[in-house]
Design a protein that fits this description.
Number of helices of chain A: 9
CATH architecture of chain A: 3-Layer(aba) Sandwich
Oligomer: heterodimer
Structural class of chain A: alpha/beta
Number of domains of chain B: 2
CATH architecture of the largest domain in chain B: Alpha-Beta Barrel
CATH class of the largest domain in chain B: Alpha Beta
Largest sheet of chain A: 10 strands, mixed
Largest interface: A-B, 27 and 27 residues
CATH superfamily of the largest domain in chain B: Aldolase class I
Number of strands of chain A: 12
Helix content of chain B: 10-25%
Strand content of chain B: 15-25%
Shape of chain B: globular
Number of helices of chain B: 8
Helix content of chain A: 25-40%
Strand content of chain A: 15-25%
Strand order of the largest sheet of chain B: 10-11-13-14-15-16-17-18
Radius of gyration of chain A: 17 Å
Radius of gyration of chain B: 20 Å
Structural class of chain B: alpha/beta
């Protein structure tokens, strides 16, 4: 029986005392994580085994929570750099989220038209959300023109957070930022909406890689930043299985909660049940017995 | 973020001047530059520990962490304070015949300055204005039209009423309420077109500053509300009762959707409930469905179905039962419930004849309830 591989790499010291990302340590973290994930000898070869040089790659970040709890440029730009080393043209790489305002607040310098990586929100002139809603299972949404048109393949580069409504936000829920009406899917802990959205063609047909940014984990009272419940985990999670990646992220959050004496998400009546729903849809695996977790550190 | 210049024609509108017979488009450039989202503190919410809030405007009672928005998409928790993002941010603005709302017992043959901001607190699969109601405000171009200016605009266009309509006025409650107050200062009345998903406290406050409310009763089964509306029937029924008791003029619309809510038995139960709970004077409109949004697979409502619904409602004692979206049908007319005289003859949104005298039948003197002057 095959397993879904999840690689969890910890890099003590990747964050400075004030929370800034140390570039060299992060580079080593990416290197090790991608190598362990694919078996390649270098990160660029790992990415080259996932993406082809002719493809346009979207890196969907999560910029909703401002500078304190977002995917910062210091984390996304090195990944884009690795894609270039894997043969992708810089201009074919799009780092994006919902709005330009959120990107700027998260520290990004917008670049919608230059030769370098493109960094832009769905609200960039000429983009927006597509015409009629796409109906798929429980969802009916218009999709970001970036996710549905600009890119051929997609990386979910999400921040690992507790979420007051969904229980957890990680790689799959990150794609709520790819639709025009995420607020309509908050009922029932976003279940089955997160799974159904991921199962839709604009997501499922493009998603290739999940990288969960757990450098700093908001393990309680998310999705906004609360210093009292933010842990410097200095970790990143890599998987080609989007469900297994979220499963592992959920385990990390639960572990931190246990360590702080907090009840489980289920005990707080907000379990991230969409992960199991996604597994039932065949999107990946969400049982410990089916997942090979490789933990390492630098 | 700058937004594209905008000219919205919600519900096939555009700006309609005069009696509604001469359509003309308004140049919204005249209303000023494109606008940012508003940042006005919302009413009806409770602050909770750790920068969380609970919205108390509608029955959903969204409990939100910092940076999160409610189901409506237009109210946001920012640092533990809840804000409306659409205060004065008008995304649809037309002068419509009031019959289009529809209000059939409110100032016939007058126009209502009809406006909307983005957002809705339900998600009807048959919404005719989904492009504004189911979008976030930053996705919908809008103009800045604060309350005083909205009231002045109604006066400038000779509208005796402002209609809060197209999307769901509940979600732009603060803007609606402040505009209503400004309108009344100028002798302009306020009419609200709502789905009725609003909590009693804000609704009760609203009834003190508006003159008429039309509520869409979208079905008479909880299952329909859960599946096709994403709402709950009981809260709508509670709103109907509250409005009726308040004395604010009330009309009810029931959109008849083939195979989904067209059971005559259910319609009869609904009419019986209305007659027994709200009284027999509340007008009930059975509107014809047209395929749109997420229900494009269904056909338009057959006219005989509408006629059967109307007959059932009248048999249950309702005195003013109409058929909508079937121009020329006799069910568009207002009849004297006592002698049968045609009091107001309509064709679509046009008034062809109105023989009411002092709000009464000229033939038998029966008083006809409504806001006639």
């Amino acid at each position: 029986m095959s397993f879904s591989r999840v690689v969890i790499v910890r890099a003590p010291g990747v964050l400075s005392a004030d929370g800034a990302v140390r570039g060299p340590a992060l580079a080593r973290l990416y290197e090790k994580g991608l190598r362990l994930l694919t078996g390649a000898s270098e990160a660029r070869d790992a990415l080259a085994s996932i993406f082809s040089p002719a493809e346009r790659i979207g890196i969907k970040i999560n910029a909703i929570a401002g500078r304190r709890l977002t995917t910062p440029p210091e984390v996304s730009l090195p990944l884009a750099g690795l894609l270039v080393r894997a043969g992708i043209k810089p201009r074919a790489i799009v780092i994006w989220d919902r709005t330009n305002r959120e990107l700027k607040e998260a520290g990004y310098r917008l670049n919608a038209a230059g030769e370098d990586f493109r960094i832009m929100g769905t609200d960039t002139a000429g983009l927006g959300y597509g015409g009629d809603p796409l109906e798929h299972r429980s969802i009916a949404s218009r999709f970001s023109a970036i996710q549905a048109g600009t890119v051929d393949a997609s990386i979910s580069l999400a921040v690992l957070k507790d979420h007051g409504l969904a229980g957890l936000t990680a790689g799959m829920k990150n794609y709520f930022g790819a639709i025009h009406n995420p607020n309509k899917y908050h009922d029932d802990h976003c279940d089955p909406a997160v799974a159904d959205l991921f199962d839709s063609a604009p997501i499922k047909d493009r998603h290739r890689l999940t990288v969960v940014d757990a450098l700093q984990v908001q393990y309680h009272k998310g999705p906004s930043f609360h210093a009292a419940w933010a842990d410097r985990s200095e970790t990143m999670i890599f998987s080609l299985d989007p469900v297994a990646a979220d499963f592992a992220g959920g385990q990390l959050v639960e572990k931190l909660r246990r360590a702080k004496g907090l009840p489980t998400l289920a005990e707080e009546e907000r379990p991230p049940s969409y992960i199991q729903t996604a597994a039932r849809l065949g999107l990946g695996r969400a049982a410990a017995a089916d997942i090979q977790i490789i933990e390492d550190s630098i | 973020m700058r937004r594209r210049r905008f000219l919205h024609t919600a519900a096939g509108g555009g700006l309609v001047l005069g009696t509604g017979l001469v359509p003309a488009l308004i140049n919204l450039h005249a209303f000023g530059p494109d606008v940012e989202l508003s940042h006005v503190e919302a009413r009806y919410y409770k602050k909770l520990p750790d920068r969380e809030i609970e919205c108390q405007l509608c029955p959903r009672k969204c409990r939100l962490g910092d940076k999160e928005r409610g189901y409506c998409g237009v109210r946001e928790n920012d640092g533990g304070v809840y804000y409306t993002l659409v205060y004065g941010k008008v995304c649809a603005l037309n002068v419509d015949p009031i019959e289009k709302k529809p209000f059939f017992h409110v100032l016939p043959k007058t126009n209502a300055l009809s406006l909307a901001a983005a957002g809705c607190n339900v998600n009807c699969k048959f919404c005719q204005n989904w492009e504004i109601s189911q979008s976030r405000p930053e996705q919908v171009p809008a103009i800045d039209l604060p309350p005083v200016r909205a009231a002045e605009t109604a006066g400038r266009y000779g509208c005796p009423t402002i209609a809060y309509t197209y999307s769901e006025p509940t979600v732009y409650y603060e803007f609606m309420a402040d505009t209503a107050v400004e309108a009344r200062k100028r002798g302009i009345r306020n009419v609200v077109v709502s789905g009725g998903h609003i909590n009693p406290e804000p609704l009760e406050a609203l009834t003190r500053i508006v003159d008429a409310i039309k509520i869409d009763l979208k079905a008479f089964t909880p299952e329909f509300y859960k599946t096709y509306v994403r709402g709950e029937l009981q809260s709508v029924l509670d709103s109907l009762v509250l409005v009726r008791k308040s004395g604010v003029w009330l009309e009810v619309v029931y959109l008849v959707i083939p195979t989904l809510n067209d059971s005559i038995a259910d319609i009869r139960r609904m009419a019986r409930w209305m007659a027994g709970t709200l009284g027999t004077d509340v007008p009930l409109h059975f509107s014809r469905f047209s395929p749109m949004y997420l229900l494009k697979n269904l056909p338009p409502t057959p006219v005989p179905t509408l006629e059967a619904a109307r007959q059932a409602a009248r048999e249950e004692g309702l005195r003013f039962v109409y058929i909508g979206n079937v121009p020329g049908h006799e069910g568009e007319n207002t009849f004297c419930p006592k002698c049968g005289t045609v009091l107001i003859q309509r064709f679509g949104y046009q008034i062809q004849k109105n023989v009411l005298k002092g709000g009464a039948c000229p033939n038998c003197r029966t008083a006809i309830p409504g806001l006639w002057t």
